[in-house]
Amino acid sequence: MRKIALILFSMMLFGLVACSDEASKNDSSNKDSEGTEQANSEEDENVEVDKNLLSVEVTIPASMVDSAEQSIADAEEEGLKVKKNEDGSLTYKMSKAKHKEMMNEYKTQIGESIEEITSSGDYPSIQDIKANKDFSKFTMTVEQEKFENSLDGMVSFTLGISGMFYQLFDGVSPEDYDVTINVENTNGEILDTVNYPEDMETTE
Fold first, then answer.
1. Cα–Cα distance, 12 to 3 (Å, whole number)
2. How far apart are CA 162 and CA 200, in angstroms?
3. What pTM did the predictor assign?
């Protein structure tokens, strides 16, 4: 299950970068909406999560699928049901237990990424990063002078992507998901606040 979780996580990152470079496309068709409570979105480039009584369906848009055949093969190897839709999107169907396991894997992956950022030495100004349970809020503690004279601020984009897609795969409506990243000095002073997807949209 860890393998498929990491594959989907990498697809998430690829998909968000692709979506930030394009305008929204035509709405996808032939999606089963029975049993869902999601609000309709004007954008079709979002992951859709359909939580039924006993199972969960996750639909990944075509723009996030690098190789449908390989994705399907990897999913089936992990025991997941997956179908390719007419619009090129892939729909994964899994039990609630599998979905919970996948979300736990995402959580672990994000945690490992944060650990690497703070301990690798690649971002010397960043001292610590903390996140809340659903990754809708991050607090990044930095050494102000080093931070302002570096490109370490780009880490906020990585955190924003991670938080946005974690929420999407967990069933948060594309109209409601939100990630706030507070950049704080070591003395607790807030130096900057970044909000995704709002700030991403204004910088396109």
1. 14
2. 13
3. 0.66
φ, ψ at 78 (rounded to 5°) = -90, 0
| Residue-wise pLDDT tens digits, 59-72 | 777 766 777 788 78
Please choose, from the candidates 45, 30, 27, the residue with its C-alpha nearest in 3D space to the C-alpha of residue 86: 30
How confident is the model over 70-101, as pLDDT tens digits? 878 887 877 778 888 888 888 878 888 888 88
What's the rounded Cα separation, in Å, for the pair 110 and 103?
Answer: 11
pLDDT score for 50: 60
d(CA 178, CA 195) in angstroms, rounded, equals 7
Contact 133, 106 (CB under 8 A): no
Give me 123's structure tokens.
């971002």
What domains lie within the chain, and their CATH numbers?
2-101 (no CATH), 111-202 (3.30.300)
Report the distance separating Cα 19 and Cα 7, nearest Å.
18
Backbone torsions φ then ψ of 193, nearest 5 degrees = -130, 130
